[in-house]
Specification:
The structure is a single chain. Helix 1 packs across helix 5. The protein is mainly α. It is globular. Helices cover 52% and strands 6% of the residues. The chain has one domain.
Length: 284
């Protein structure tokens, strides 16, 4: 039988394991590649790096229409990645406590089961917000709006390397692992997050208020992860929800609530000629 596992991270709850084997990714990536001594990289890290590269390329194209925020959007990429890693690792300890304070190398582990989405998302957001301190509120939101489609694409590509399998299923042509058909959650996740990225790309330049892409990103990504959570084996925290789904539900509600607040604020403060109105108008 397939084991039930705790929720993981970077996006996916840890899924099934082959009998006698480790949780497998959809792509044929090695689970661990030694580099030098105790240092090495995981297969998930390779997929995540490819996702970051794809997101960076998309960001460059989007910023061609917004030269006014190009420099700021590029300079916050590194702080965002560091913030996501640090807070994602710390939040993961609530579910899978694999960090050992006396073993520094465990602090920076980046695999499909060592990062928490519920920690990585606010970690990246807080790092970007701090890096843009001193800038006007609407300008900060304009930077977030540019980053949102790139982040969604990065997650979509990185999801292909998440070492997890879905619930057993009798769906036609389901992938077989150990003779058991399982839900191909990597494909579901990759296509779903890519669709969200495509929507955000289309919406960029058509926003009604500063921050619309940001809150749409948070709401859609979290809501989709919540639905995806029903297809993976994970112990329930608030039956039938897992811990990851509970966090996703909270983030989705926060995204929707923030959208209403920002929209109302734009209606009252976004008069023509105001600072927010000047930043909000994305070039076509």
């Amino acid at each position: 039988m397939l084991d039930r596992r705790e929720a993981n991270s970077a996006g996916a709850p840890t899924g099934a394991r082959l009998p006698g084997g480790a949780a497998m990714a959809l792509l044929p990536l090695p689970q661990y590649i030694p580099v030098a001594g105790p240092f090495g990289v995981s297969g998930f890290s390779i997929a995540a790096a490819a996702g970051i590269a794809a997101g960076r390329l998309l960001l460059g194209r989007l910023l061609r229409a917004r030269p006014d925020v190009r420099a700021e959007a590029v300079e916050v990429i590194l702080p965002a990645l560091v913030g996501a890693l640090l807070l994602g690792r710390l939040a993961n300890q609530v579910v899978v406590p694999d960090l050992r304070w006396h073993q520094p190398l465990t602090w920076f582990a980046a695999s499909g089961t060592s990062l928490s989405y519920a920690g990585a998302l606010p970690g990246a957001g807080l790092a970007v917000w701090w890096s843009l301190r001193g800038r006007p509120w609407a300008r900060r939101l304009a930077v977030f709006d540019a980053l949102a489609p790139a982040a969604a694409l990065a997650v979509a590509v990185g999801w292909l390397g998440v070492p997890a399998l879905g619930n057993p299923t009798a769906v036609f042509r389901a992938p077989l692992y150990g003779g058991i058909g399982v839900q191909p959650i990597q494909l579901y996740g990759a296509f779903g997050f890519a669709a969200i990225a495509a929507w955000l790309v289309w919406a960029y330049g058509r926003s009604d208020f500063p921050g619309q892409n940001l809150v749409t990103f948070v709401a859609l990504m979290s809501a989709f992860r919540f639905v995806l959570g029903f297809l993976v084996p994970a112990p329930p925290l608030v039956p039938p929800w897992s811990a990851a789904q509970a966090a996703d539900a909270v983030l989705a509600l926060l995204g929707m609530g923030a959208s209403l607040v920002l929209q109302r604020s734009a209606r009252t403060d976004g008069a023509p000629g105001s600072d927010s109105a000047a930043v909000d108008g994305d070039a076509p």
